[in-house]
Amino acid sequence: MNLYEYMGKAIFRSYGIPVPDGYVVEKESDIRPFTKPVAVKSQILLGGRGKSGGIKFAKNENELREAVKALLNSKVRGLTVTKVLVEDMINIDRELYVSIALDRSQRAPVLIASAEGGVEIESVPKEKIFTRRIDPLIGYSDYIGREATAFMGLQGDVASQFRDILSKLYRVFNGEDCELVEINPLVVTKEGKLVAADSKVVVDSDAVYRHKELSVTDPEKTPLELEAQSKGYAFVELDGDIGVIANGAGLTMATLDALTLHKGKPRNFLDLGGTDNVDIVVNAFDLVLKAKPKAILVNIFGGVTKCDTVANGIVAAKQKYGIKQPIVVRLSGVHEDEGREILRKNGIDSYPTMMEAIERVVKLAGGA
User: Which residues take part in binding substrate (predicted)?
Assistant: First the structure.
């Protein structure tokens, strides 16, 4: 789960990492009285906002209101801005970069730091980037911070503050079950203080259940996509007329491609995943039916997902929802003969190969 900047900064603040004072605005009435120069920052889940006009600065109340009005509901890098962060402007002297990321190849978090902050780390020459694997059994140690500050040429109080932030950033990484925590830029102010001017926090999606306080609503998702997400389905609405249920993201994508190849138009992407639960199949039909397709294609290659379980789910869904649209099923794999027999007894077409099922559903959708 990728968090918005304001959410990441709230976490930083709770761990004692310095961040600018600020507040979130979702509508113009949320704007607070102007007291000092501020930055108005669009909250989207992509970087590069400054270059795309997604960050504005205000030195008086009129400029603040104009900046908020210009950004709210605008498009920045193709994404709709539903929130902006208004925070105190920072008196910047220089900018640093620091992050801790999970490196799966090393099976450990890796610290990345550079004195070249404020730009994409990929654009910084390798010789100017400090990297150090952190043993997950030992954790972060002060000597890593000393190595980093020496590499970056930091001295005195700035070096001390930097090491303190590194220690706290590792605590964030562990405590919040993160895959990535990044501060870019980590600003050194003209007063000699370090402040996290931005935040990027990515929480492991498999650990989100431990963080009930976190909730990110993607403004680009449709209401039906959000409903599917809340129920644990990978679901995307498309602009066609054939509903699609398949198991596995790869098979689902192949199904969409094959439908398009045969002049069919998919209405959705729905990955059933690996399941042996009739209710999961039934609930998948509920989502697809809400997309109002002309016909429904179910493409199952049974392994973990048993073909007879899916067949029972299809029959249960047809009875529960009174489905009028034609349903075409491809069943192949574990218990496929039993699954086809269940479908045959209930008047539902089934085929052993994907292409046979696709040709049939395209024909039915065209005549629906």
Answer: 247
Paired strand residues for 2: 202
* Alpha-carbon span 296 to 290, nearest angstrom: 12
The pTM for the full model equals: 0.74
**Does position 236 have pLDDT exceeding 70, yes or no?**
yes
Percentage of residues of the chain with pLDDT beyond 70: 99
Which residues belong to the annotated binding site for Mg(2+)?
184, 198
Catalytic residue among 4, 5, 6, 97: 97
Residues 155-194 have pLDDT tens digits of 999 999 999 999 999 999 999 999 999 999 999 999 999 9
Q: Could you say which of 176, 179, 182, 225 is catalytic? A: 182
Peptide bond into 185 cis (omega under 30): yes
Q: Is 116 a catalytic residue?
A: no
- Tell me the two tokens of residue 13: 């603040």
Ordered DSSP codes for 223-282: HHHHHHHHTT-EEEE-SSSEEEEESSHHHHHHHHHHHHHTT--B-EEEE--S---HHHHH
Token pair of 29, please? Answer: 């009435």
Is 140 labeled as catalytic in the residue annotation?
no
